[in-house]
Amino acid sequence: MLTPSLMVAPNGARKQKSDHPDLPITIQETAQSAHACFLAGADILHLHIRTKNGSHSLDPGHYKEAICAVNETVPEMPIQITTESASIFDVETQFYCLKNVVPAAASISIREMARNTSLAKQVYKFCTEANTTVQHILYSPNDVALLADWLGKGWVPHHMNSVIYVLGRYQPQVLARPEQLSAFLYASKYLSLDWAICAFGQHELACAKLALQLGGDIRIGFENNTLLPDGSPAKDNAQTVALAAALIKDL
User: Fold this and answer.
1) In this structure, is residue 111 part of a structural domain?
2) Is 1 a member of any domain?
């Protein structure tokens, strides 16, 4: 059995210091958080960048600066960038980001790509040619069905079989619970997927535990949750990563 992967998402697109004082916003804060999380047991960084005012950004130059900072601070840690729109960016902007960053790995929402199917085909073709590892963000079983359709049509190549199931919601706020995973697994039972989960709210670790027991990977971090299982605030991203790493060790 392969050791499950533990990805950390330390900030996301929306949360601010008002949500948690240790939420990393600047590039240097993100790099420092990545280093602490790597020492706590995280295998890979899910990277978001922010503008000077703290809002979500897909600026390629800013991404390159952040990647360099993380590589300098914790060179052993692989990086996955996000192309999340956060209700701000269109597919053209997402594709522009990918073409100009050419990341080693990227998360891409198939639901967001469906806003422009002609460009979507180009996105997946580009990622194949650039050897960018794609992880499909799937927010619901309907997204699983969409991925299956695009795999069948050849729009998404079959080697792009990495997905992350999102349990719960940020807006409108829906607390993640472990039982939500079953709908995703049922919808994808005929697909050969390399899957992981992330989970909104204080049941994040309970969701992670079930995913690990069922053979999935996990993503932990302040992007989705800043609370410990008892509802109290976590000290920082590294604390929740360490708790998740302990779950993996217990397998």
Assistant:
1) yes
2) no
Residue 197, C-beta contacts closer than 8 angstroms, at least 6 positions apart: 164, 165, 166, 167, 181, 207, 208, 211, 216, 217, 218, 219
Q: How far is CA 49 from CA 6, 55, 87, in A?
A: 20, 8, 15
Q: What does the alpha-carbon distance between residue 121 and residue 112 come to, in Å, rounded to a whole number?
A: 13
Give the pLDDT confidence of 123-161 residue by residue, as tens digits: 999 999 999 999 999 999 999 999 999 999 999 999 999
Provide the pLDDT confidence category of residue 172 given band limits of 50, 70 and 90: confident
With tokens 């995280």, the residue in question is 42
Q: Return the CATH number at 152.
A: 3.20.20.70
Dump pLDDT digits (tens) for 31-71: 999 999 999 999 999 999 999 999 999 999 999 999 999 99
Q: What range does the domain containing 102 cover?
A: 6-250
CA-closest candidate to residue 95, choices 116, 67, 66, 64: 116
The residues that bridge with 188 in the sheet, in sequence order, are: none
CB 14 within 8 A of CB 222: no
Structural domain count of the chain: 1
Contact partners, residue 153, CB within 8 Å, separation at least 6: none
